[in-house]
Write a structure and sequence with these properties.
alpha+beta; 2 domains; 10 strands; elongated
Length: 196
């Protein structure tokens, strides 16, 4: 073997012998970088962590919502364009949470010239006599099938409110609506919980 070949063989042997050491150093370097990253990340995590002692135990209790009304006596008999009849009902919050009142869409059992023309008005009042005399301004006026409306009235728990409801034919109602068969109208007042 020549000198040159021996030198190449020696270099190859030295490289082979150094390879495990280089791999070991590379692995240690990578492990060191990972440990350093974890320690640095853990330090950042600790900066964003806050702990405080818990206060005394708190009991959460569910509230309830309940709404009642007195029977409403309204007759649509003898209505003609321009005439409206009124009646009062007492709406009461029987729950433990405040309720915002709305009138749901008014429905009818049948579609007639009367039901397509009838207007329903709702307003709050302090007197049933003022209501039946038609002296209560309407908060909402709606028709059969129209979207529900906010009555702009909130009832506290245990509170009651006298509400005036009117049913009538507007002045511009078609003549066919007067004297037409009146079907049953469903007027629903709902309550939605108000956040405290």
């Amino acid at each position: 073997m020549s000198r040159r070949t021996r030198r190449h063989a020696a270099r190859r042997a030295a490289r082979r012998a150094a390879a495990p050491r280089r791999l070991l150093l590379g692995a240690l370097g990578a492990a060191g970088a990972i440990v350093l990253g974890v320690l640095a990340g853990g330090g950042t995590f600790a900066l964003w962590t806050v702990a405080a002692p818990a206060a005394s135990a708190v009991t959460l209790q569910a509230g309830s919502a309940g709404l009642t009304s007195t029977p409403l006596q309204l007759s649509a008999a003898n209505l003609y364009p321009g005439r409206t009849v009124y009646a009062a009902t007492t709406v009461s919050n029987t729950g433990t949470t405040p309720l915002a009142l709305t009138i749901d869409p008014v429905t009818s059992t049948a579609v007639t010239p009367f039901t397509t023309a009838v207007a329903v008005s709702v307003g709050k009042t302090s007197s049933a006599a003022d209501c039946t005399a038609g002296r209560v301004p309407a908060t909402v006026t709606t028709t059969v099938g129209a979207a529900g409306s906010d009555l702009q009235l909130t009832l506290a728990p245990g509170a009651s409110q006298l509400v005036c409801i009117g049913v009538g034919l507007p002045q511009n109602a078609p003549a066919a609506a007067a004297g037409a068969a009146a079907s049953t109208l469903t007027i629903t007042i709902s309550g939605t919980q108000v956040r405290r």
